[in-house]
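Usage example:
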Amino acid sequence: DVKVTQSSRYLVKRTGEKVFLECVQDMDHENMFWYRQDPGLGLRLIYFSYDVKMKEKGDIPEGYSVSREKKERFSLILESASTNQTSMYLCASTLRGRNSPLHFGNGTRLTVT
Amino acid sequence: GQQVMQIPQYQHVQEGEDFTTYCNSSTTLSNIQWYKQRPGGHPVFLIQLVKSGEVKKQKRLTFQFGEAKKNSSLHITATQTTDVGTYFCAVNTGTASKLTFGTGTRLQVTL
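Running the assembly step on the lines above writes:
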């Protein structure tokens, strides 16, 4: 069974802090994704990566960056956290290809105060 | 970017009643996926539809892909409390890897 692990379930940070959200998958998937989920807005794609050191912007990349130094790990970075980045963050992975389903981690609920 | 409208946003039914959620796109889709997210959980893949007019069933769940491949529906027959959650459709946009999600339909089932 695919396992996607997010390092923290809950996180509280202060405005202006640099925040790292970590995600690790154990199924050798090529593609990894970061989404944020907000009530009424569904899941919105922040960034995704289709290979090591490769990344592409999603629909809402502003205020975020990512790092993929190893195939199994995909990190989301908030350079200077702001209150409007309070949200549920979901990491997902999938095999390469148009028809591959996403496997999600349990999510990190980030609160920025 | 790709617009995927999902309706309704919320539906409350009594156990035993049927439920349907619809996903509509302004452009022709290559395929569509459906996910379910239980309260407090993460989205879990249910099914993928690829062919025009395709219909797939999973027990009480019936998934349809429109003839023009611009819309899809998920129908649940005789809902149970275990069906509670939010149902999302997701479509490929841009590069092969990128999935765009609908806004979801939250289903509440009461006895």
